[in-house]
Amino acid sequence: MLEVNAPIGNIFLDKGFDEIKSGNFEKLKISRMELEKRILRRKGDRGTDVGFNLDPGVKLRHGDVIDNGNTKIVVEQLPEKVISIRLKTKNMVDVMVLLGHIIGNRHRPISIQSEEIVFPIQADSEKEVFTKLFHNIINHIEMTVDERIFSPHSGADVHEH
Fold first, then answer.
1. 110 alpha-carbon distance from chain centroid
2. Contact in structure between 39 and 52 (CB atoms under 8 Å)
3. Distance between CA 22 and CA 73 in Å, rounded?
4. For residue 159, is it within any domain?
5. Which range marks the domain in which residue 72 is found?
6. Do 32 and 40 touch, CB atoms closer than 8 A?
7. How far apart are CA 34 and CA 47, in angstroms?
8. What are phi and psi of 103, to 5 degrees?
9. Which of 20, 49, 113, 131 could be a cystine partner for 1, CB 3.0 to 4.6 Å?
10. Residue 148, burial from CB neighbour count under 10 angstroms (0-12, 13-18, 19+)
11. How far is it, in rounded angstroms, from Cα 116 to Cα 142?
12. What does the pLDDT look like over 45-104, one tens digit per residue?
């Protein structure tokens, strides 16, 4: 078993790993919730058994690279269901405040990407719940459900319920 205390870098952040992006490498697929754990054991897609006992303060992220001595293994976050919301009209401060209030009351982590607010859900049916919650502003927003890799905004660290 490969024991890991910290990744050696990230393919999206470190130029030294550019050759890995186009190469043939092992992937270790992990959910966002598992990325939060310090102690974790998983198998890569080529069978490498990896045990994480991360040093204090170290968190795994999508694209992190670990080294098993022979080859590099890349941590790949699994996509998850999310709701994404866009304003139909820009600079509607009252709508933005209400969106923040409603999503915040549901204790959801959020990500703000360009002009889009994204947060994870468990099932497609939650779109109905949020449609009802957003009833006062529903005509001012576009809401879609899809699957993607979700990374919460670092300043909005909340506990999911």
1. 10
2. yes
3. 13
4. no
5. 2-77
6. no
7. 19
8. -65, -40
9. 49
10. middle
11. 10
12. 999 999 999 999 999 999 999 987 777 899 999 999 999 999 998 888 999 999 999 999
